Amino acid sequence: MLIKYDVIVVGGGHAGCEAAAAAANLGSTVLLITMDMSKLGQMSCNPAMGGIAKGQIIREIDALGGLSGIVSDKSAVQFRMLNRSKGPAMWSPRTQNDRTLFTIYWREELEKIQNVHFWQDMVVGITHYKNKVTGVKTSIGQEIKAKTVILTSGTFLNGLIHIGMKNFGGGRSGEKASHGITEQLIELGFEAGRMKTGTPPRVDGRSLDYSKMEEQLGDEHPTSFSHLPNLALKKQLSCHITYTSPEVHEILKEGFDRSPMFNGTINSIGPRYCPSIEDKINRFADRERHQIFVEPEGWNTVEIYVNGFSTSLPEDIQIKAIQKIEGFADARIFRPGYAIEYDYFPPTQLTTTLETKIIENLFFAGQINGTTGYEEAACQGLMAGINAHQKINSLEKFTLSRDEAYIGVLIDDLITKGTDEPYRMFTSRAEHRILLRQDNADVRLTKKGHKLGLADQNRLDRVEQKLLKTNASLYYLGTNSIKPEQINPTLDGVNSSQIKQKTKLALLLSRPQININHILKLDSGFATLIDSSDDLKPEVLEQVEILIKYQGYIDRENETALKQKRLENIKLHDGFNYRGISSLSSEAIEKLTNIKPATIGQAARISGVSPADISILMVHIGR
């Protein structure tokens, strides 16, 4: 190839697709290299997007101008907002998706972008000169030049699949592993490690008895991931819930002596919060049953994903055990579950932009950084794609802080703390989660995406309209009152104390028993202000109710974030000589020298760096 690209993206998974789209939409010429172009954005594990904290990430990607939210909405077969019974910081959107359509729509979206070119091949190494990447080498002998390279290799680097006592090379079922990259990067000075993940068997839905399971419907009024209008589902498929039993557990135990998890074949660490079924019954021996989610793979297929039954036990044990699950007596398996080991590179070797510290203009995104999950991979791809473009055009790097986005939390955790087990995002990881809600991702990030050039003018106009209408509603509720005789019957009906004099509507809405619909019914002025035909109405009402009910918490969190941001504003340059500060602890000197934090705030979050060490640093730099 004679063309020299601005960006080469290696790998066509969730990280690779977002990276390619972001860099190309910003104006870079991009070559996406993948081993199989028919599997762009492939859902290697469960056919679903979002969930706890992950749904917030997809909303953030969409707000910035990424594509995962749009693709998820177009391919959805069910939509649910999880955790509605909890506070709004915990509400998390989730779609069940058509696996085939998801891949088709990703390819369609990428092919719409003129700057994205494709090449089907395996990359076996990078080319470089004086610690700066210059391109890639492929398995058929091509050397392709580029200003930047983004590696998004997923589980393919020296991938090894395990089913019982059998193991064989592969990056995914039916696909070969990738060799050469790990070995080269280690020679260049990178540290590498091994991780494990797994997937459950897929079964024939025609062989299941759904009458013996609990039906799980989608939301009655589904919304969507994307902040763009008209992407909500009009019809939905049901999922189902069933359970394992002591009999199932006993059958599974029969295969433990042939389990790669327990016989020493697998030594790498798997995801703590998504364990295999054999790991669950081993670790939680007192539990008599575990929940199984029976999830359809799409509109036009009978294939079913058995969520909660991830396993690498021998096929005979898998079949025998699964047929003892309620509703699975006659289950026919399409393909067995398996575990897969693969190489990753501890992410403390990266800067805040996901560029490697050892090789300039080389970026890592996705499972190569030790994460697990489509959403975690996609947001890293987006940020790497943005920053690859910014770097080669001498533009300001783009980063998000911990109080701005879950994406900021994830990247900061990775590059500051590292991970020795597959990293998965949870709401508990975000100390400012009341600020990082799924409902305000567009308000937080669309202006940033528009300034970059990713989010278009229509998106920005929509957010500004939402803000205008939200502020008008807050002003109305904060300045208008209601008489006791108008509201007291409603208060009696919801077991809330009556009022004795005119009371501001906002004060009444702050009561836990009163919701925004009560106010709409009782105050005609507010009902007139909220245009019922406006497609932004549900979003505005949700924003208004949350901001009034949780204003105290939000204000306090903003104050805390502001205090912490002061530490983020104190910069530390890459060449800072920590060994020259004798009063720092030995552990702090080692960690700070290796990680090279960009700010005092980041330094304070490094494991092993104490508050005393931070105080010494502050004194040393005259603060």
Overview of the molecule:
The N and C termini lie far apart (53 Å). The protein is globular, with a radius of gyration of 26 Å. The mean pLDDT is 94. Strands 1, 2, 6, 7, 8, 9 and 20 form a 7-stranded mixed sheet that branches. Strands 14-15-16-17-13-18 form a 6-stranded antiparallel sheet, with no helix packed on it. 36% of the residues lie in helices and 17% in strands. It is an alpha+beta fold. The protein contains 21 helices and 22 strands. It has 4 domains: 4-197 and 342-452, 3-Layer(bba) Sandwich (FAD/NAD(P)-binding domain), CATH 3.50.50.60; 202-336, Elongation Factor Tu (Ef-tu), domain 3, CATH 2.40.30; 457-556, Arc Repressor Mutant, subunit A (Orthogonal Bundle), CATH 1.10.10.1800; 569-620, DNA polymerase, domain 1 (Orthogonal Bundle), CATH 1.10.150.
Tell me the layout of helices and strands:
Elements: E1 4-10, H1 14-25, E2 30-34, E3 48-50, H2 54-64, H3 68-74, E4 76-82, E5 92-97, H4 99-111, E6 116-120, E7 123-128, E8 133-138, E9 143-151, E10 160-163, E11 166-169, H5 181-187, E12 193-199, E13 202-204, E14 214-216, E15 239-243, H6 246-253, H7 277-283, E16 291-296, E17 303-307, H8 315-322, E18 333-335, E19 338-344, E20 362-364, H9 374-392, H10 406-417, H11 441-452, H12 457-479, E21 481-482, H13 484-493, E22 503-504, H14 505-509, H15 516-522, H16 524-529, H17 537-549, H18 551-568, H19 586-595, H20 600-604, H21 611-620
Parallel strand pairs: 1-2, 1-9, 2-6, 9-20
Antiparallel strand pairs: 3-5, 4-5, 7-8, 8-9, 10-11, 10-19, 12-19, 13-17, 13-18, 14-15, 15-16, 16-17, 21-22
